[in-house]
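Researcher: Re-running this chain for the archive, since the previous output was lost when a drive failed. Same request as before.
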Amino acid sequence: MENTATLRQRWALYCITKKDYRNEILSKEEAAKLIQELGNPNYKKASKVAKSLSSELLSYLKEHFDEIFGEAVKSLSLKSIIEDDDYVPEDKKKRYAFVGFGCGITYFKYRKNNKKAEEINKAANEFQYNDIKKMFLKKFTAKERHYYEKIGCPLEAIWSQDQNIQLAYYHTVRDFAKSKGIEMEIISRLD
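Model: Regenerated C-alpha cells:
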C-alpha cells in the first residue's frame, strides 16, 4: 500500500504515545497530522489527565491528616520534666519541660534506582515541613501555641522531632506508596 504511514512515522507515534501503531491502518497524512498534534508540547500539557505522584501524595496526606493528628494528640498528652544529673548541686540544677514520646530520626529506605520511591520521599519531606505542618499548626489557638513556646517546646519543634508523630506521618506516606506498588521501608530510632 503506497500511501500508508511509513515505519519512521509509526515509530515516532509510538515514541510519543507508547501505543503500537504497526498494525494500524493509517495514511501518511493521518500519521503526519497525529505526529504534529501529539508531538506538540502544548497539546501534551492540555491533555495530561494523570496527576503527578507528589500531588497525589499531598491529596492523600490531607485525606488522612486526622489520623496523623490523632497520634500527635497522644504525643502532646505526654508531659514530663527533665533535670540535670544528681552530680549537679541542687541549687544549680536546671529543669526542662519535655512533651511527647521522645526525639526521633525517621527516614525511608528503598532501592536507590527506584525513581518513583525517590519522588515520593522528596515530596514527603517537603510536605512534612510545609503543607502538612501548616495544617498541624492551624489546629491550635494562638494561646495554645504561646503556652508551648513558653515552656520551651514550640509546636513546630514537637511536630519535627517527636518520634511518634514522625512514625504516624511516615506510615501514611508508606501506605500511599504501597497503593502505587512501591515498596518503602521505614527506619526510625530515638535520637
